[in-house]
Amino acid sequence: MTASDYVLEMNGISKNFPGVKALDNVSIKVRPGSVHALMGENGAGKSTLMKCLFGIYEIDEGEVILGGKKVEFSGAKDALRSGISMIQQELLPIPYRSVMENLWLGRYPVHGLGPFQFVNHKKMLEDTKAIFEELNMDIDPTTWVVNLSVSKIQSMEIAKAVSYKSRIIIMDEPTSSLTENEVEHLFRIIRKLREEGVAIIYISHKMEEILQISDEVSIMRDGQLVGTYPAAELTTDLIINKMVGRDMGHRFPPRDNVPGQVVLKVEDFTSPEPKSFKHVSFDLRKGEILGVSGLVGAQRTELMEALFGLRPVQSGTVELNGERLRFKSPSEAISRKMALLTEERRSTGIFPILAVQDNVLAANWKSYVKRNFLLDLKRCDTDVTRSIDMLRVKTPSSRTFMQNLSGGNQQKVIFSRWLLTDPEILILDEPTRGIDVGAKFEIYTIIADLAKRGKSIIMISSELPEILGMSDRIMVMCEGRMTGILEGKSASQEEIMRLSTQFM
Length: 504
Ligand SMILES: Nc1ncnc2c1ncn2[C@@H]1O[C@H](COP(=O)(O)OP(=O)(O)OP(=O)(O)O)[C@@H](O)[C@H]1O
Ligand SMILES: [Mg+2]
Prior knowledge:
With 504 residues, the protein is of the alpha/beta class. It contains 17 helices and 24 strands. The strands form 6 sheets. Strands 6-9-10-3-11-12 form a 6-stranded mixed sheet, sandwiched between helices. Strands 18-21-22-15-23-24 form a 6-stranded mixed sheet, with helices on both faces.
């Protein structure tokens, strides 16, 4: 095969950050008109490799050959001009701007001449409509981004990347917040782009997606390339084996928690918003793991946020250990030993320019104050170190800025933050989203262990295997209503799917 069979070659790429060798002599070759998946555990170097390609990071060693020519980009603008676009893992839209302004940022259509140029809003609107129409997306171009759901923002970013008409599109976990229909839709878009000769570099932790959409798969481990394989030769087990470097055996830990008496009783919970949750009743036992299943949009997050005092409720009652309560703010819930691990960690959960340590302690720092004004630094240190070790967070030190951690490792930090508050009731909203298989197992083990120690857990998850593998009971929701509660042991995927789509 000659060089020109590839639209892109990255040869011997190395990249160091202070204290970390993020990339060590990595080479990948990408064919035009193909989907090339990139897989690896959290912190393996996937995003870094793509940021090197996209001109966000400078490469320490190695070369990038694009369409047979060596290139060096000094920024994302350069890369875009050369026909590479990227959907980044961290979505960073400008919230108080319209969808169309976000879409054309830095390349607004203008009219007029020289210094008398004005943004051509009419053309911008038309162009935006045309793109959404072509991609069959239902988003209002004039609405502010702050009003969009995460899944719509992700769709908008997809449209934006496609709108550059690039020959290479990098997608770094594009489906992390998409509904199943939206994923299907994205796959149709990807197949069409592939037919047109576009190369897609696709990063995801979802094995099923990878096997379904990709032509070739490159697997990375600890900053090195393990190898590139035709997707047809791979299976889930083979991928895991190459990613982790060992056989995983079981995907879920054994559980020996025994659910006890009811600790939380929710009755007839109803939101003031018409499209949100209605008449939801359920209870939660001590030492129980209650899975909450449903399609994206089933209002599971809204329900739990309302329970936690983050949203208003119109009617309904809550009993906590026999006491009637309704939280008006999260701090009330926290003082009653409840914790909520939010779904959208990247926008609501992390403090990017604070150190990992501060992020771990954020929900709990008051308990480290001694003699009323001094922080007990030693205890801070011990607890942070223990948390980092327990969840195997990959970070050079606890002083590293949060924003320098890989996406999945940021997630683990937030998890440890809530564990330190020592809650009795833990609400986990998609606790393993964006987390690799090995780390998932670690998180499942922690959840199982918490339940065994008598903590009660509500786990919202869109991954059916996870729901089935971890729950004592499963509550299913559809369009704001509870459609059933199943016993974890006897529940089946089909039954959950049927209840999830009951009103559709
Ligand atoms: N700007 C940065 N400064 C310092 N270290 C960084 C920076 N960006 C990434 N790293 C480190 O480089 C390593 C690779 O991170 P990268 O984000 O590429 O992982 P990833 O494979 O994308 O993981 P994930 O699946 O969690 O997104 C990690 O150890 C990370 O902490
Ligand atoms: Mg990443």
